[in-house]
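Bug report (template v2)

What were you trying to do?
Predict the complex of my protein with zinc ion.

What happened?
Run completed; filing so the output is reviewed.

Input:
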Amino acid sequence: MNELRIALSLFLLIVIALGVGYYLTEAELQRQRRVGLEEPQVSEPVRMPPPSGSSSREMQVRVFFCAPGATALGEGFLLSEERTVLQTGEPVFNARQIVDELIQGPEEEGAAIFRQDATIRQIFVLEDKTAVVDISRKTADSLAGGIRMELCAIHSITRSLVENLEEIDQVRFLVGGKQELTLSGHVSIGEPFL
Amino acid sequence: MRMFRLAALAGWMLVCLAPRLPAQDPGEMLLDLGSRRSAVAMEQRSGKPYVSLKDMISALRLEGWESKDRFNLSGPGGELLFLDGRPLVRAGVDYLLMSSPAWKKGPSDWYIPEAFLVRALAPVLPGRFSKTGAARYRFEPRDLNQVKVQVTNHANYVRIEFSTSRPGPIRVHERRDYLEVEFGPYRVRPGARRGTPSSRLVSELKFNSRDPFGTFRIHKGQDYRRYREVGVADAPTRGVEIHGPVRRAPARASRAVPASAATADPAPARRSRLTRSRSRRESPVIVVDPGHGGSDSGGIWEGDLGEQGFVEKDLALQFALRLQEEFRQRGLEMVLTRDRDVNLSAARRSAVGNANRTRAYLSLHLGRAPDETLRGALVYFHGNSPVMPPPEPEELDGEPMVLETDVDVDSEVSEPESETGEGEEEEGVEVAAVQAEPEPEPEEEGKFVLWESGQERYRERSRELAAVVQESLNQVYEVENQVVEAPLTVLQSVAAPGIVVEFGQLTSSEDRWNLTLDTFHRRLISALAAAVAAFLEGPPQGADRE
Ligand SMILES: [Zn+2]
């Protein structure tokens, strides 16, 4: 009789232990499932302020942005805004300032294409009037997911450079210092744009 | 010794009781449909019973499919969207909050809490869906679906067309002696029947009133080999073709015969009154490339609670698979560049098109625009549209003239809709080329074209295809988007009319909403397929200069 009582209590203990164990694993699983839903937040890097002006001459330029809602290429595809940059006499520096203005984004109704932390690694201007614009990998990736994004980036940079600088007739794009097929998967950058 | 006996006793008691622990037991739910009873899988999760959606869909003849982390179920009353791990269901435009989330047990195997079964399913079902006891439900179909049958006998097959008074899925199940045709969650009432099938292929065509919804049974005749489902021009009509043994076609070897020649039908399987493709060539007519894949996800829209997230590669694939089904129903053959989530280079994608000698190549994508107001589908074709605008129009006043300054720069660039003298001159050259070589030959033997410039000869045909597709998709989205010419790596090597179709913009909240709706997908797919079919029916064939 005594034995049966001990056996029963032992049995009850095991049942309780199993029950608690089951409850704990289930609670843990549920917690993990909930945790999995929360995505980590990435903070925005800080952008350096643009360098202050010097005593050189200034020049007016038209910086081009994509027109909101425009679907076809052609005249209505881009909008321009006036900007004042320094006339350095050096096409590379002039080009750099124009592209920086472009990255800063529009002040009127044009659409911003680049994030403000976008990086253009280098710009060269060759003797045959080709500008080579080397975009960082990360900036090119930020255009991912649409032909429209890539076209806007290519058209706004090309037009802003060719229209304002007579030393530039066409623009070739590199990504991360290398000749790539596309900026981010769609539009071919194998040939220069003009 | 004593302890050992005690432990053994306790263990034995546990073993006796273990199978009765309810948490381990995958149960069953019963669903009464008229006089028939179906079993639906049930599982316990956190002590609550969950019901298999897959089983419910098959028992109730609904439609359901999975995409990424959601499951769509559609019935005559609307659609439901179940999200994994999130306590949210969407029915039409309403959000319903469930106190427990849906549960994805495995691929396409979704479960919802039993407690929500009636609330979730009753609105989409045409009839009374009710709980009749513990784990026991009943559905009584209310709406009638009148099904008319038309039978036509052909040389080597019988075509049986069903015209239904209600839209919905038509499913064919092949059994040993017959094919069973189901018509969604309605009570079927057989309507007028015209024609009698050839007894060699179909021994009997009967309405089966013993099925709770009513089905048609096509009993196999002695020559029966296989069947295929086909779409018919009018939306609610579907057909089943019953085929006998395949006969070798005499025209098979004659590749050089002009495509339009009226040759004997090489493959009756591809016959359709919708298309004339059957006599043209044996290779697939359309190649569809679901964009991105594998480590390249394409565009991503991070959803949050209350809004669905999107991954371009997944949606493109899902869209392509449904498009394939749509083309199949229209009697058009379609091949995919990928049917799984894998990385593919642009060259490999074009190679699938070129190796299959496709007549239309569609690369499917979702768009992202710098501004949120741009919405709808955008269709692109390959070309080098210049960035810089054409020179000022004043210079063209009076007589049209050639602008000397631009000739050398643009000699390689075709100017599509250009009004300048230079553009007209190029058009003239094209016309002259066509007149000089009125070659009907579809392929120029012995002439090599650079792989990278495979698309060059098809630019005008691609532009036409783009225009037809854009127009058709504009109607679905109710927008007036225009086709765009751009240098596109996925198209540049395609030696056929080819386009990129962005079938929605992820940056537009309106598009995102639309893209969660099955009905909207269906409209897009049908509009896209109709446009491509219309393009393939059109008169000009081959490359631009032929
Ligand atoms: Zn894409």
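What did the reviewer find?
Residues 57-175 of chain A form one domain. Residues A 186; B 291-292, 298, 312, 365 surround zinc ion (CB under 6 Å).
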